Amino acid sequence: MSDKSTKMEDKKIAKDTGKKVFSKKDSSKKKASPVKSVGKFIREYRSEIKKISWPSVKDTTRNAAITLAAIAVVGVFIWVLDFGLSEIRDLALENIPKWAAAAKADDVTSPSDMEVSLSDIAE
């Protein structure tokens, strides 16, 4: 097949499918200069900024109040949970010497073990 027939077939396929066929010449196009690219970016940026829908002062105030209320509720919940868990911990730590003494007294088998156990508890 010749180069011309291949190009004609590519054009026919592109026409039938609606897809663009790239040739070697298409890929050798020069890129836009950096200055033009920056200018295009700034123009597109400005047009996108104009499309933004900014909230009103009333909406912003309401949303801020809702956020602060949610923070307060979560803060109180965490404080109550922390207070309750520390109280449980304190109660458990206060009773540990009693549990330890009872456990050591149960493990005593001879009088000499009992003396050591009692001295350990006294400390």
Please tell me about this protein's structure.
The protein is an all-alpha fold. Helix content is 80%, strand content 0%. The chain has 5 helices and no strands. It has helices spanning 3-17, 24-27, 34-50, 57-107, 111-122. Helix 4 (57-107) runs antiparallel to helix 5. The N and C termini lie far apart (103 Å). The mean pLDDT is 77.
What's the helix-strand series?
HHHHH
Number of strands: 0
Strand content: under 5%
End-to-end separation in angstroms reads 103 Å
Biggest β-sheet strands, sense, barrel: none
Report low-confidence residues grouped into runs of 5 or more.
none
Query: Judging from the principal axes of the Cα atoms, what is the shape?
Result: elongated
The total count of helices amounts to 5
Mean pLDDT: 77
**Class by SSE composition:** mainly alpha
C-alpha-based Rg, rounded? 41 Å
Helix content: over 70%
Give the SSE layout:
Elements: H1 3-17, H2 24-27, H3 34-50, H4 57-107, H5 111-122
Helix pairs in contact: 4-5
Summarize the structure.
By secondary structure, the chain is an all-alpha fold. Helices cover 80% and strands 0% of the residues.
Features:
123 residues; mainly alpha
